[in-house]
Amino acid sequence: MSVARWPQEGRIAVYLVGGAVRDRLLGRTPREYDFAFDADGETFLRLHPRARRVGRSVSVILLDGQEYMPLQGTLEEDLRRRDLTVNALAEDREGRLYAHPEALSDIAGCVLRPASPTSFADDPVRVFRLARMACELPSFTVHDEAVAQMRAVAASGRLEGIPAERVGREFMKALAAPRPSCWRGPLAEGGCLSPWFREVEAAEDIPAGPLNAVAGYDISRDPSVPNVAAKSFLLLDTEGRIETIIEKRVVSHVIAVGLYLFASTAMFEVAYHALESENREIYMSDVIAWLIRERGETFVPLMARAYEDWGTLAEWKALQKRSRTYFVDVDGVLMKNSGRYGKINWNNNAEMLEDNVAALRALQDAGAQIVVTTCRDEAFREPLEAMLRDCGLRPHAVVMGLNHAARVLINDFAPTNPYPSCLAISLPRNASLKEYLAD
Predict the structure, then answer these.
(1) What is the pLDDT of residues 317-351, one digit of tens each?
(2) Where is the domain boundary, 303, 326, 354?
(3) Among 60, 130, 159, 296, which is most buried by a count of CB atoms within 10 Å?
């Protein structure tokens, strides 16, 4: 098997590794080629003057548009440190094959198995890579060891700390794979849908197929639900089905929360037109009650796990306040101010302004979005994002490379987002945010 991408200089061993070797064994055309070399980075750069480093957290070298990485230890050690056995493969320029002890049998048996007992703990994003591989190789099954490692990683809480772009990269590749629908299954079995795919996990409770249903919430779980007397209430029979819906009269402990499902639009139209003759305002509860009473239709409750009331203007405004987006500068607001140069600079300054971090973390935990802004350039992104993660901040975005000048925010206002729809805090350098956020 020939590969036309080997570097011309052959004084160090270079191997084609990973998925490209696997795909060639399966008779598939590789979409990506990954190479590893048996030397340190400096040696490779010396032998290939056109090459240059492009990685920061890992040692990646770019040569003629192709990426190369040094082996992690010996070739055998490198293969054991990879994500899955089916990817723990290497081929030299003469076509000789090198494999993890279980790689070839797992390819033959169509099994996705971790390459080592610590594969997923070593890099938690590998749980999403496993799900992506299930989409790319839908005939393969997930080994029990993979499920066990996924559950351990999920229980450790380390999934939340994975950079969003790494999760997104695996997800986008899964969507482009032959069977994207295989993404959810392994993650669900391994308990890894949350926190990144929490909505998909919640959808487990939604029945499939055409049905009549009303979303409800048991207010006995939360006595703080406001304005209870103005709600619509579901009256359930002994089998848990909806007997009727009653407006603005407390007849049970289950309220309707505003989501209604009908098995067909024709059914809804029949009920609505039958009620039009009553010459009054028609509520959704009227339509459902008529269908139950006159047509014998069955409606079931879909019980919500949590409830947040946005039914009045005051409640909506309170939600908006909790959901604000805060654009926060790094130097002088999140961290003690420093610059590119000087004794204390961007390379060595790690002093966070703890009171400000705590104030923003509280806003974040209540529902706010934090967008971090800085004039630091892209070379500082990874260490900055690591420091933010370490102090518990999960920014919606980190915007690098801004001008060292005033920031001007422009936003529209309307009744649903009233004036003023944007605010500004000009904070003295390294000062406390608390008094400015007191409202």
Answers:
(1) 888 888 999 999 999 999 999 998 888 889 888 89
(2) 303
(3) 130
Residue 362 lies in a domain: yes
pLDDT above 70 (res 206): no
- 328 and 419 share a domain? yes
Nearest to 423 by CA among 431, 415, 435, 411: 411
- DSSP code per residue over 58-99: S--EEETTEEEEE-SSSHHHHHHTSSBGGG-EEEETT--EEE
Task: Determine the Cα–Cα distance for residues 335 and 286; give it in Å rounded to an integer.
Answer: 58
Residue 238 forms part of a structural domain: yes
**83 with 115: CB under 8 angstroms?**
yes
Domain end, chosen from 205, 229, 258, is at 205
Q: In sequence order, what are the beta bridge partners of 37?
A: 14, 70
263/282 Cα distance (integer angstroms):
20
What was the pLDDT predicted at 1? 41
Q: Tell me the pLDDT tens digit for each residue of 216-225.
A: 999 998 888 8
- The domain tally of the chain equals 4
Shared domain for 34 and 95, answered yes or no, is yes
Q: Which of 365, 231, 224 lies closest to 306, judged by CA?
A: 224
85 vs 439, residue with greater confidence:
85
- Please report the pLDDT score of residue 207 as a whole number: 61
Residue 151 belongs to what domain range? 111-205
Question: Do residues 105 and 115 share a domain?
Answer: no
Within a domain: residue 361? yes
Backbone angles phi and psi of 112, in degrees to 5:
-105, 110
**The model's pTM:** 0.54
d(CA 241, CA 254): 12
Give residue-wise pLDDT tens across range 87-144.
Answer: 999 999 888 999 999 999 999 999 999 999 999 999 999 999 999 999 999 999 999 9
Residues 6 or more apart in contact with residue 157 via CB below 8 angstroms: none
Instruction: Assess if residue 143 is contained within a domain.
Output: yes
